[in-house]
Amino acid sequence: MEALRAWRASSNLLGFAASRASTSAFVAKPLYLRLRCCSGAAATTNQKPLPQDRRRRSASTSTSDRDSIRAIRLKKVEELRGKGYEPYAYKWVRTHMTKELQEEYTHLENGEVREEAVVSIAGRIVARRAFGKLIFMSVRDDTGTIQLYCEKDNLTDDQFEQLKEFVDIGDILGASGSIKKTEKGELSVNMKDFEILTKSLLPLPDKYHGLTDVDKRYRQRYVDMIANPEVADVFRTRAKVVSEIRKTVESFGFIEVETPVLQVYTQIFWFIDAIGAAGGAEARPFITYHNSLQRDLYLRIATELHLKRMLVRLQFICFVLLIFSYEYIDKVQVGGLERVYEIGRIFRNEGISTRHNPEFTTIEMYEAYSDYESMMNMAEEIVTRCAMATHGKLKVDYQGTEISLERPWRRETMHSIVQQATGINFSSFGQDVESAKSAARGLLGIKVGSSESISLQSCSSVGQVLNEVFETFVEPTLIQPTFVLDYPVEISPLAKPHRSYAGLTERFELFICGREIGNAFSELTDPIDQRSRFENQIKQHSAKRAARAKVKSTEDQGDEDDYSYDVSLDEDFLTSLEYGMPPASGMGLGIDRLVMLLTNSTSIRDVIAFPVLKIQQ
Q1: What is the CATH code for 241-323+334-409+480-548+562-606?
Q2: Which end of the chain is more exposed for a tag (fewer CB within 10 A), N or C?
Q3: What are the coiled-coil residue ranges (predicted)?
């Protein structure tokens, strides 16, 4: 009787579901729904279709309706077990995926039946329509959807009653039978046998509206992929991109290595806008505590410094092998020990936006005896191969704009591209930082003393001012693939000085659709110069903290970190350089942003299965 009361309390909801199920290519008739009560007696209710305006009501299901449906379905689970059926199966043997059937039997004529073709499929019921002795159901698996044609004459009385009374939309069903194409041209499995593989307890989102609550989509990605099948395609594309990246770099002799996620040192000196922290802030680490070691550890903010250590150590191994055994030299060179890469998660304790997630995925790679020109070619190779693997062409649409990935890509120095966009030649300021700041304020419309001027005011060199203007004024305009080259030395602490132009470094960043995709440079291998750069970075960091302290907005207070950086934190890396690191180039590419481009996604949350979200109030 409790189930019967639940049925009466939710009759409007079930009537609504029934009427929606009846809207199809078939002629709708009044639907007769039956619910098996706890006593085993069948209660039959006539339910008239609801008006059209009530059919298309909001997709949200109230908590009471949801609980009522769950109670009814739990009762069905009990009844199935009482009849000797297990509603949560162990296995089902499939002969075909739905896409395979659609392709193999697409040639059938309307009304044609292939009784000799015995097939077995499994998937989730996403639609259900009952017409007396005939039931139509749509089953969706990982490859597509196909119709189940369920005729009473093809099933036992017990099977047909079970199908009518116990199978709901959302259940996972295994079905076998022959192949037929209906008179209306719908390829179907003419079902002869079936089994409930998983009994769904909760209702799926409204089929007219889908799951439209964006926040709920991200929090309940499993429901999102059921309600919006195209979402799963994004993650299939992502997997294909990662696979293609591996194939590409390994075809050039790179080997994959793994570096620590939990680190003793913070590796703070990768923070110079390498992957673009929200607001251009410095990358701050997540800190955790190791109970056994009784010390703080840090989640990595980059893989760079450990990968560089690999180059130092591998070169040392080659030297030892050279001394002790000449026969191993060819094996070491062929093995690609001078080319290493890692695809891994990076963690930064910073803001969340459509472009930034606190954890994201990159590939970083390092190649001995090469410079940043080599990495430009590698970046083009990786992106174009990924585009061909996912789209089959080098012209892709992104939010209505055609992006051409055909090589070669545009290459401009930072100085020249800023001058083209603003008419200001920052080289002409020499060391006059205040004049550069004044020109930047006029260009950006920033008032002295305003909160917007904090970052600009903390700039201690013309190179830093140039970078502020570039990020604010130029970067959003770089829609087609563009390499921006030769960054100022003040914002590139790990890059080798430019061989031709003083004050610049051999560094580039790759921009597509106004977003930074990659960052690379000829690696700095001089340990004395590297130590000096790190010390200067600490001074710049302290200056920015002091500038922030003068103007404290609510946002600044939320972003402020009290961590005290010290060059000694990276003393081990500096020591490794003193053993000698070969000339090398390195690059980091943001995989999430590349997937955004190739899937036409506007938010990084769309390409991360389970993004970090704000706590629900």
Answers
A1: 3.30.930.10
A2: C
A3: none
First to last CA, the chain: 38
Note the CATH number of domain 98-198. Answer: 2.40.50.140
The CA-based diameter of the chain, rounded to the nearest angstrom, is 92
DSSP 429: G
Q: Angle at the Cα of 121 (from 119 to 125), degrees rounded to 5?
A: 140
Per domain, the residue ranges of the chain are 98-198, 241-323+334-409+480-548+562-606
Q: What pLDDT was estimated at residue 306? A: 81
- Dist CA 7 CA 34 (whole Å): 10
> How confident is the model over 342-398, as pLDDT tens digits?
999 999 988 888 888 999 999 999 999 999 999 999 999 999 999 999 999 999 999
User: φ, ψ for residue 122 (rounded to 5)?
Assistant: -150, 145
- For strand 145-151 and strand 187-198, is the pairing parallel, antiparallel, or unpaired? parallel
pLDDT at 327 over 80: no
Residue that has been written with the tokens 């106004």 in this structure: 514
Q: Which two tokens stand for residue 41?
A: 């007696």
In terms of Cα–Cα distance, which of 502, 513, 474, 499 is closest to 373?
499
The label of the residue with tokens 């009471």 reads 64
CB contact set of 487 (below 8 Å; sequence gap of 6+)? 414, 463, 467, 495, 504, 505, 507, 508, 509
Contacts of 451 (CB under 8 A, 6+ apart): 551, 553, 556
